[in-house]
Design brief:
Layout (H helix, E strand, L loop, with lengths): L5 H4 L10 H4 L12 H9 L13 E3 L2 E3 L7 H9 L3 H11 L3 H7 L3 H4 L12 H14 L15 E5 L3 H12 L3 E5 L20 H13 L3 E3 L10 H7 L2 E4 L5 E2 L12 E3 H15 L19 H9 L3 H13 L8 E5 L3 H13 L3 E5 L26 H10 L4 E2 L2 E7 L8 E11 L5 E5 L5 E4 L2 E4 L3 E3 L3 H5 L17 H5 L2 H7 L7 H8 L38 E3 L2 H4 L4 H20 L6
Helix pairs in contact: 3-4, 4-5, 4-8, 5-8, 6-8, 9-22, 11-20, 12-15, 15-16
The structure holds flavin-adenine dinucleotide.
Flavin-adenine dinucleotide binds next to helix 9, helix 15, helix 21 and helix 22.
Organism: Saccharibacillus sacchari
Protein name: Glutamate synthase subunit beta
């Protein structure tokens, strides 16, 4: 803490933003940069309190509070105050591989937990984080740092969202050879196709992907493991697999008229919008071809697999995209069903596409606008949040687009083909037979909203199941991949012993094919050069239990696929922690943090 009276001397100031009417004319980020002196003052507000809840990352009253990444917040705040930006960047990168993502999109539970919030307003941690990493890029301090040595171990990461990327970055740092498989045409998961460009510009994602490539990570796009390439084949070529496929199976709304044209899942709409935006800006090459940066002869087998699998599935996917390119709100009345963040992103996107009107339905009651006096502190405040999309809609339409305690009852059509409106009904929440609150329709409260485009943003039911079923993995009650405590049982099932018995035999594609072709999962040991150390190989005598291990040997899971839809910061944390376990599994120890 450089300035003992910083919190008294300076008020909280956040970066100013372009006006709502101005920014809906473009797709770019709209927060302005703060100058150095203002940032210094904001950093000086951090009092390095004895119990810095901001970086604690824990569960409180059932909710996550503090930074999931345990960012060293007081340390880098102090370094910014002292003008030592270079070291601030190093301290920031110590716990977070991608602060340029979290500095833009994280809802900042750190600020909700800042001690300063007790008596005033919290430190502007999020904008300081963004400023440090942006400066790092501007100054050229962030450069590829390939590992000094390679271990000879190979790991496949399935899914290239923040969890997969963080995991790959850490494993690569430890010297393992990492290949990331991604079914989309671009790397980034929801960072690319999900979070809209005005929240996180896609060039920011691409810049980090380029760095990871330069550090030696191999990216294979347009390849859905389990569909385009058999999972057993990936298994046979790698010593461990990390599943980081996200949790984007969308919740449905099965009411009358659901089959009409013009009703779409929010994720389809947001993805099509980003693809169109990238295509219009000339930075989207929609060739549909598999792309890999793998040029080394050691990866020829993988490349052959990819060539062999360059079949109909991808073409189908791309013709679907071509159709969806026309999926636009331009000139239409839009109803978004779902009042969460995904719904907000739909509202903001529809406004930028030039919709005629937009309404957002939310079945839950309107949250209080201020934290109740009896709310225990510190806690991330559960108060009404008027997010960027609602502010923009309010500026255009003169009122909040949200209708609380309102449910869609049926979709209407004049032609029998396309949707033309949504009939809604007001909801009352009363205790049901078991005493828990239940929604009841208010008789006579029906209303009709015109809509030629309806977007379903009702949340997600969990990960897509195809790959998980092929691997015969255990799921938890919410259909996420079950992990935790596995590892010992891998050994007791004899898989590690079988591994050792085979000694240095390498399971290349041919032996794996013999055992696995067409049968989905096979409990074959991995096709590596020696026994995994965590299961009794070199460097470790005892099998250990891993938190991120699935029920299948050598297969780990991280991010939304394991914990359900969450936040980018949690995904990065999970990717980092899973990487530590994989490193321990492969080498018997780890130097990763
Ligand atoms: P994802 O980001 O979902 O990535 C998984 C990737 O795996 C995908 O690219 C998918 O194509 C790929 N994949 C899946 N199966 C396979 C397979 N078999 N083979 C190959 N590839 C496969 N969080 C925030 O913190 N701030 C926000 O502002 C925010 N906004 C959001 C907006 C929207 C619309 C949504 C839906 C979510 C948002 N989130 C936000 C949540 C956040 O994006 C996720 O929690 C996070 O991206 C999860 O990371 P992940 O790596 O686990 O999975």
């Amino acid at each position: 803490m450089g300035k003992a009276t910083g919190f008294l001397d300076y008020s909280r100031v956040t970066p100013s933003e372009d006006g709502a009417l101005e920014r809906i004319e473009h797709w770019n980020e709209f927060a302005e940069k703060m100058d150095g002196e203002h940032l210094r003052q904001q950093a000086a507000r951090c009092m390095d309190c004895g119990t810095p809840y901001c970086h604690a990352g824990r569960i409180l009253s059932g909710m996550a509070a503090g930074c999931p990444l345990n960012n060293l917040i007081p340390e880098w705040n102090d370094l910014v105050f002292r003008g030592d930006w270079r070291n601030a960047l190093d301290r920031l990168h110590k716990r977070n591989n991608f602060p340029e993502f979290t500095g833009r999109v994280c809802p900042a539970p750190c600020e909700g937990s800042c001690t300063g919030g007790l008596i005033g307003s919290p430190v502007t941690i999020k904008s300081l984080e963004k400023s440090i990493v942006d400066r790092g890029f501007e100054e050229g301090w962030i450069v590829p740092e390939p590992p000094l040595r390679r271990t000879g171990r190979k790991v496949a990461v399935i899914g290239s969202g923040p969890a997969g990327l963080a995991c790959a970055a850490q494993l690569n740092k430890a010297g393992h050879t990492v290949t990331v498989y991604e079914r989309a045409d671009r790397i980034g998961g929801l960072l690319t196709y999900g979070i809209p460009n005005m929240k996180l510009e896609k060039k920011t994602v691409q810049r980090r992907v380029d760095l990871l490539e330069a550090e030696g990570i191999v990216f294979v796009t347009n390849t859905e493991v389990g569909r385009d390439i058999p999972v057993w084949q990936v298994r046979a070529h790698h010593d461990a697999i990390v599943l980081a496929g996200g949790a984007t199976a969308a919740r449905e709304l099965t009411i009358e008229g659901r089959g009409l044209d013009g009703i779409h899942q929010a994720m389809d709409y947001l993805t099509a919008s980003t693809k169109k935006m990238l295509s219009d800006s000339g930075s989207y090459a929609d060739s549909g071809e598999k792309r890999t940066n793998d040029d080394g002869p050691a990866k020829q087998a993988t490349r052959r697999t990819l060539d062999l699998n360059n079949g109909a599935t991808n073409r189908e996917r791309y013709s679907a995209f071509t159709a969806k390119k026309e999926l636009s709100a331009a000139g239409r009345d839009v109803v978004v069903i779902g009042g969460g963040d995904t719904g907000t992103d739909c509202v903001a996107t529809a406004l930028r596409q030039g919709c005629r009107s937009v309404v957002q339905l939310e079945i839950m009651p309107e949250p209080p606008s201020a934290r109740p006096a009896d709310n225990p502190w510190p806690e991330y405040p559960r108060v009404k949040k008027t997010d960027y999309g609602q502010r923009e809609a309010e500026a255009v339409q003169g009122q909040d687009p949200r209708r609380y305690m309102t449910s869609a009852k049926r979709f209407l059509s004049e032609t029998g083909e396309s949707v033309c409106g949504v009939q809604t009904v007001r909801i009352e929440w009363r205790s049901g037979p078991d005493g828990r609150p239940m929604p009841y329709e208010v008789p006579g409260s029906e209303e009709v909203f015109p809509a030629q485009l309806v977007l379903l943003a009702l949340g997600f039911t969990g990960p897509e199941q195809l790959l998980l079923q092929q691997l015969e993995l255990e799921s938890d009650a919410r259909s996420n991949v079950h992990t935790g405590g596995h590892g010992r049982e891998w050994a007791s099932r004899g898989e590690a012993a079988a591994w050792r018995a085979r000694g240095a035999t390498s399971f290349g594609a041919s032996s794996a094919e013999a055992g696995g072709a067409g049968r989905g999962v096979t409990r074959l040991p991995f096709g590596a050069s020696s026994s995994p150390a965590g299961l009794g190989g070199p460097g470790s005598s005892d099998p250990v239990a891993f938190l991120y291990a699935t029920s299948a040997e050598g297969i780990f899971a991280a991010g939304d696929m394991r914990r359900g839809q969450s936040l980018v910061a949690w995904a990065i944390r999970e990717g980092r922690e899973a990487a530590r376990e994989v490193d321990r599994y492969l080498t018997g120890g780890t130097g990763l943090h």
